[in-house]
Specification:
Layout lengths: L2 H14 L25 E4 L6 H5 L3 E9 L2 E8 L2 E6 L5 H13 L4 E10 L9 E10 L17 H18 L4 E9 L7 H9 L4 E3 L2 H10 L3 E11 L12 H20 L3
Parallel strand pairs: 1-4, 1-5, 5-9, 6-7, 7-8
Antiparallel strand pairs: 2-3, 3-4, 5-8, 6-9
Helix pairs in contact: 3-6, 4-7
Bound molecules: 1-O-phosphono-alpha-D-ribofuranose and uracil.
């Protein structure tokens, strides 16, 4: 086959190939199992499906909509606003799928309520961490955008998350609120001392595994996104590194959910 013929054949295949960006609008979604009309416009996104009921504890008229693979979804109402909680699973690949499919069923704002490890001294288990932007150390977003494309949250959601978290910290006490840049890694157990020290030197506040996909895919699909995490551990001072009875982390999850719900109400998301 000549080179010219190969080029013609390639473009013929490209012409008939599936365009996934146009697939699935308005129907029950393949991975998350939700159909349009079953959820509202704002979704809180924990990583862990077992934390979806923790969001539901704050809601009235709770309904479980679907649970497929790592994606569990419940809906309910908080202060009159319809709220959805959908778990993303761990990492950017499943998070990108969740955000893509939530966009296809009418969700317009997504707030990750996650756990994340601190990289600066003074960031303690149970503290709340609000993202101002993400260092994209993941593979998924490389498939979507230019290497220099920023992974940034919505400004108003971010400002409101920080304000809501600070109000809770003032009235409840027992935890601090930090804002800054975080990293999104793909490989939890490949975060070695050298990488942790490099992130620390560059002033990165914390590390987690989903926000690169969350922020990039949300931008590309015209959605608003934000992230508030509870600190699970501190990787530079070794506080409470993955100990089962991390009650401060559990309290931090609840506070992060409350801050996200208040944000949804105040901004009418
Ligand atoms: O607790 P979640 O929200 O899953 O967040 C963090 O926990 C997991 C790693 O332990 C990763 O998903 C990381 O981002
Ligand atoms: O990537 C991550 C996320 C949470 N905790 C870690 O230690 N690393």
């Amino acid at each position: 086959m000549s080179t010219d013929q190969a080029a013609v054949d390639k473009s013929a295949v490209e012409r008939s190939a599936v365009d996934k960006s146009a697939v699935g609008t308005g129907v029950r979604q393949y991975h998350i199992g939700i159909a349009p009309g079953e959820v509202g416009t704002v979704a809180l996104l924990p990583g862990d499906p077992f934390r979806v009921p923790l969001v539901a504890e704050f809601l009235t008229d709770v309904r479980e909509v679907a649970h497929r693979r790592e994606h569990r979804t419940m809906t309910g109402y908080y202060k009159g606003r319809r709220i959805t909680a959908t778990s993303t699973g761990m990492g950017c690949p499943s998070t990108a799928i969740a955000v893509e499919e939530l966009a296809r069923v009418g969700v317009t704002s997504v707030i990750r309520v996650g756990s994340s490890a601190g990289l600066q001294p003074g960031v303690e288990p149970g503290d709340l961490l609000v993202s101002e932007g993400t260092l994209r150390n993941d593979g998924t977003t490389q498939a979507y955008v230019h290497p220099g494309y920023p992974a940034v949250p919505d400004l108003a959601i971010t400002t409101e998350l920080a304000a809501a978290a600070r109000r809770l910290a003032r009235t409840r006490g027992g935890f601090a609120v930090h804002t800054g840049i975080n990293a999104s890694d793909d490989a939890f157990y490949a975060e070695g001392p050298e990488w942790i020290a490099e992130l620390h030197r560059q002033g990165v506040l914390n590390v987690e595994m989903e926000s690169a996909a969350l922020f990039v895919v949300a931008r590309l699909r015209g959605m608003r996104a934000g992230m508030i995490c509870a600190c699970s551990s501190n990787l530079v001072d070794g506080t409470s590194v993955y100990d089962e009875k991390n009650t401060r982390l559990k309290d931090g999850w609840a506070a992060s959910i409350e801050a996200a719900l208040e944000t949804a109400v105040r901004l009418e998301l």
